Amino acid sequence: MGNLVVRALRAVLTVVLTGTCLVQALMVWALATKPVVGSLPLTPLRVATIIGMASVEVAVVCVWRLVTMVRRGTVFSDAAFRYVDVVIGAIVAAALVWFAVTIINAPGQRADPGVTGIMGGIGVAILGVALIVYVLRMLLAQAVAREVEAAQLQAELDEVI
């Protein structure tokens, strides 16, 4: 991975992390100071937003660590699995939060149930992203196994020579 790509990815991750922290701070401020007015259940939606942003922040930090490992050439190791597993968990948590938002929002959508269906579909799509990352984790596991095998073969070859 080139330096330009690493720097661009880190810039994007920084913007996302800053934005999610800002949204979280605003939601906490709204929870503390703005009373709920109207029929929309704002308090559960604000709490769901805070939890959802936290899952995004966890995933961003883990991707940052993985990029660091790629830059150092140590990504094909068992240590990378921990970060990938946390990313998968964060995506699943975000999907569950999204399903909770869908359930909270559903009673207000009785006149237009299609909105609830679309929101449920988005939640399934988020779970699909978790499955894609899981498949990538399996590819990483195969690459790590090949790396270990190559190191063993190299060691045997060095002994023969």
TrEMBL record:
Record keyword NADP present: no
Keywords, comma-separated and alphabetical: Membrane, Transmembrane, Transmembrane helix
Pfam families in the cross-refs: DUF2975
Domain of life of the organism encoding this protein: Bacteria
Chain segments annotated as transmembrane: 12-32, 44-67, 79-104, 116-136
Keyword Membrane: yes
Protein name: DUF2975 domain-containing protein
Natural source organism: Actinospica robiniae DSM 44927
